[in-house]
């Protein structure tokens, strides 16, 4: 993993010693949650958010809010694991589980990394193809080149990568801020949608399952623990508590921004498509429909945010994949090999002529299968005193994490059952 400069390390040490304070001191600890938050604004979220807003207006905003709260909890636990143990989730899994289990976990995680890259590459490529009227394969190639160019900065330490990812997140956020200014949002309806749990029909339940089931991303759980494991050189329990406090604050802020971006996606789709175009379900259709409804500027910002999302999430996905391989197998591979391993399947799918939206759906199904692996492992580790010491999570938080895991995994099961055509009586009607 990258490292911090000596100046930043000295700054962190002075904050932990109590010699520095204020918001600038907090910024020294910022970065890990910002990078992890990209997973919650990736292209896989665009399709489900567009479907939710177009089909049901503001009704499903409460689902986005609930999903975001669950994400905050698990990312905070992942960061806690890295800060307390000095190891990431993959390394702890390798050290504590039987060898056959480790190999299975690694294999599933690698498949999940490929599925993640498929969605992210397609998102960036679709955006470039639509914006510049390019073939989808050309968009894929450009996305690959830009992603690799950004990954080169990883060798220069944490800060350059964090600043680049932070800038791309800012682009996404500003684009959607502009979108909700341009679109005539019914703010009272949006507020009611956030606080009123309602599922009008079986199709709404299916979309809700898609929103929540794709929220807690496997690679983000692995990555966050690795980004925090050696960031601050803590010398005692008091300093560790202070780092945890900074980390929890950053998680709340970064994931709140990601949640607001997702809500803005739903609100934009609700405002533009719900009355008259409720059948809009694909990214390409949304773009072509936005132009006559809200103007070329709104459509262009939609694509700009999609491109920024695809590139940033692809970079983060590669970082996570490298950490997963290094943690489970205990060796580091060159970044270009890591990039190639997860990139080839995405190119193969596009070359085979598979519909882009269908490929995005398939990637979410694969991620749903892989999700239980890191979620369950994370809860096990943060609940064990021999691993966490005095920082083991208390019973109340353990119950809350268990309820969140059951909710997410249960909804993932519904998504998988529906995809494979299994009969689900409560989805009928």
Describe the structure.
It is globular, with a radius of gyration of 21 Å. Helix 4 (43-56) packs across helix 13 and helix 7 (99-132) packs across helix 16 (335-351). By secondary structure, it is mainly α. 77% of the residues lie in helices and 0% in strands. It has a single domain, classed as Amino acid/polyamine transporter I. The protein contains 20 helices and no strands. One of its GO terms (cellular component) is plasma membrane. Belongs to the NRAMP family.
Q: What percent of residues adopt helix (DSSP H or I)?
A: over 70%
Q: Please tally the β strands and state the result.
A: 0
CATH topology name = Amino acid/polyamine transporter I
- How far is the N terminus from the C terminus? 51 Å
What sort of overall outline do the alpha carbons produce when their principal axes are compared?
A: globular
Beta-strand proportion? under 5%
Number of separate domains: 1
CATH superfamily: Amino acid/polyamine transporter I
- Structural class from helices and strands? mainly alpha
Taken in chain order, the helices and strands follow as HHHHHHHHHHHHHHHHHHHH
Largest sheet: none
The CATH level-2 architecture is identified as Up-down Bundle
Number of contiguous helices: 20
- What value does the average pLDDT take? 84
CATH top level is Mainly Alpha
Radius of gyration from CA coordinates: 21 Å
Q: Which blocks of ≥5 consecutive residues have pLDDT under 50?
A: none
Protein name: Divalent metal cation transporter MntH
Transmembrane segments: 21-40, 60-79, 100-119, 125-151, 163-182, 202-223, 251-273, 293-316, 336-354, 360-383, 395-417
Family: Belongs to the NRAMP family.
GO molecular function: cadmium ion transmembrane transporter activity; manganese ion transmembrane transporter activity; metal ion binding; symporter activity
